[in-house]
Design a protein that fits this description.
- The radius of gyration is 31 Å and the shape is extended.
- With about 475 residues, the chain is mainly alpha-helical.
- The N terminus and C terminus are likely disordered.
- Helix content is about 65%, strand content about 0%.
- The chain starts with a helix and ends in an 8-residue tail after the last helix.
Length: about 475
């Protein structure tokens, strides 16, 4: 490892005249925005470390369900098998030591030392009494002496450890602690204690994350901004795609404004460009178009929200078609809307998998909805759908497979308008009205808007200085005087 590092460093010293900074983390060759700079191996390693830490801090802030989880090796993998073999060998060896005459307690004492350290780590500054108890009972010097004299009472030590774990664990671990008392063999008990202590460490870490999250906002904003600036110093072209993203958004807005019916279209403000740019990310061509650098850590989240948006648009389109085609007969039937919604939702569950065939699924969905409608109409004494009505309904549902379908475009426009309104009014507590036709998906749409707003607002806080500089250049190039956000 050191030889490779030495080779990299010597190569950097030898060929500095030929080396320049690479443009961007997801970029091939791109025009340089500033003169080339020499990048050493240390710079690269430090940058990578900084980006990794920044990703973790970002994850904690934007993911409200973030939790520290134990590492899990894939089932059947070589790493998992090796780990299981090594662990089993250790416990077999420990058990063999205790069966010797006299018993050997060397490895047991090592495990007791680890347990003691873990229990002490759970204590708060005010837990002086518990600290004294742990120090007294798990006195390793005394335990060593007792082991040498064959007077070590491992049962008493185990009971003390279990009781202490019960007083320090989260309520969700009470049952696990109680199960420890049912284990009679010492080695399996010690193994179970250490396993449960690992889970308690995770509980403590997750509690700490949830406790400090409200106090981390400003620090996280400054931390991410500074880390990105450090990255930008080493990668001068690291905002090329962000600049293109904002410029393209501004150009699209100007084109729409120029074709508007109004003779005096409203002025385009930087804040409007921001929000429209974020909304464009919900229709991004991820496979062919590079994502803005400032949004890279959230690209997966935007892909998930994009898929959710597409599914909600299609779901609302189908339900609107059903109710407009079938007429007033079903408009007031209790529970029908929810039943139809659940049916369509289930049919579209795998909508974004590679094996999913939308056309075939919509045909099947139309047939199933017609059957459910007829059952419901019969139950309430109404005339069932005629053959012409069924064919019309199924045909209109199948037609929504095309993105340019009129109903689908209408629902998409309303969803986009609602999401844009939530971004523009994100600071107001008054809930926005749900556009017509979207009432059946109001719960899912609100959840999506909250998720999008949280992500966007945090991104604005972190990267607003970078965005403002880009927009100042964009607006000044068009002779716009004011670019204040």
């Amino acid at each position: 490892m050191s030889n490779e590092a030495d080779h990299i460093e010597s190569g950097a010293d030898k060929d500095t005249s030929e080396q320049s900074v690479t443009p961007s983390p997801h970029r091939g060759s791109a025009p340089q925005a500033s003169p080339p700079r020499i990048v050493s191996a240390e710079d690269i390693m430090e940058t990578a470390k900084g980006v990794t830490n920044m990703v973790l801090a970002h994850e904690i802030m934007v993911n409200q369900s973030f939790q520290v989880k134990p590492p899990e090796l894939p089932e059947g993998s070589l790493e998992r098998k090796v780990k299981e073999i090594v662990h089993q060998a250790f416990w077999d060896y420990l058990e063999a030591q205790l069966k010797e005459d006299p018993p050997q307690y060397g490895h047991v004492i090592q495990q007791l030392a680890e347990i003691k350290e873990t229990l002490l780590s759970f204590l708060l500054p005010g837990h002086s009494h518990l600290r004294s108890q742990i120090e007294a009972v798990l006195d390793l010097t005394l335990i060593q002496q007792q082991a040498e004299k064959q007077a070590l009472d491992v049962g008493a030590l185990s009971n003390f450890i279990i009781e202490m774990m019960g007083s320090l664990c989260a309520p969700c671990r009470d049952d696990d602690v109680s199960k420890l008392k049912e284990i009679t063999e010492f080695v399996p008990l010690l193994k179970a204690i250490l396993s449960l202590l690992d889970l308690m460490k995770l509980d403590m870490a997750n509690f700490a994350v949830s406790s400090i999250r409200p106090h981390l906002m400003q620090q996280s904003v400054e931390y991410e901004r500074n880390k990105f600036q450090e990255f930008l110093d080493k990668q001068p072209n690291a905002l090329d795609y962000t600049e293109k993203w904002l410029k393209d958004t501004l150009e699209n807005m100007r084109q729409v404004s120029s074709t508007a019916a109004s003779s005096a279209p409203p002025a385009i403000l930087p804040a409007n460009v921001h929000n429209q740019a974020y909304l464009r990310l919900l229709k991004w061509e991820h496979l062919s178009e590079p994502f803005p650098e400032t949004m890279l850590m959230d690209q997966t989240r935007f892909q998930e929200m994009q898929q959710m948006t597409e599914k909600l648009v299609l779901l609302s389109s189908i339900l609107l078609i059903v109710y407009t085609t079938t007429g007033e007969a079903i408009s007031g039937l209790p529970g029908l809307m929810e039943m139809l919604k659940n049916t369509v939702h289930a049919m579209l569950a795998d909508m974004h998998t590679l094996s999913f065939n939308l056309q075939e699924t919509l045909v099947t969905t139309g047939e199933k909805l017609c059957m459910e409608l007829n059952q419901c109409l019969t139950k309430h004494g109404y005339t069932t759908l005629s053959t012409d009505q069924k064919n019309t309904l199924m045909g209109q549902i199948s037609a929504t497979t095309h993105p340019e379908n009129t109903v689908r475009q209408l629902m998409d426009s309303r969803v986009q308008s609602y999401l844009l309104a939530t971004l523009e009014c994100s600071q107001h507590k008054t809930p926005l009205p749900i556009p017509g036709g979207l009432a059946p998906i109001s719960k899912e749409l609100k959840e999506l808007s909250v998720r999008l707003s949280c992500l966007v607002n945090f991104n604005k806080l972190v990267f607003s200085p970078f965005y403002q500089k880009i927009l100042q250049k964009c607006f000044s190039s068009e002779g716009c005087a004011s670019t204040e956000t």
